[in-house]
Amino acid sequence: xxxxxxxxxxxxxxxxxxxxxxxxxxxxxxxxxxxxxxxxxxxxxxxxxxxxxxxxxxxxxxxxxxxxxx
Length: 70
Known about the structure:
Structural class: mainly alpha
Low-confidence stretches: none
Number of helices: 2
Shape: rod-shaped
Number of domains: 1
Radius of gyration: 21 Å
Strand content: under 5%
Largest sheet: none
Mean pLDDT: 80
Number of strands: 0
């Protein structure tokens, strides 16, 4: 949550600087878009890697026997 708050502060700061200098540009939109896209990508990659790790554990269990306690 702290990273999201810091990203929001960074994006708003960039918005203010853009408004007082050359005007809004694509970088401003990318900063706000990154706050939505990057956490979603991070979460999706966590789910994918978690499932792959679980698959490896299941395969190991079938080959060597159980080391996972239920």
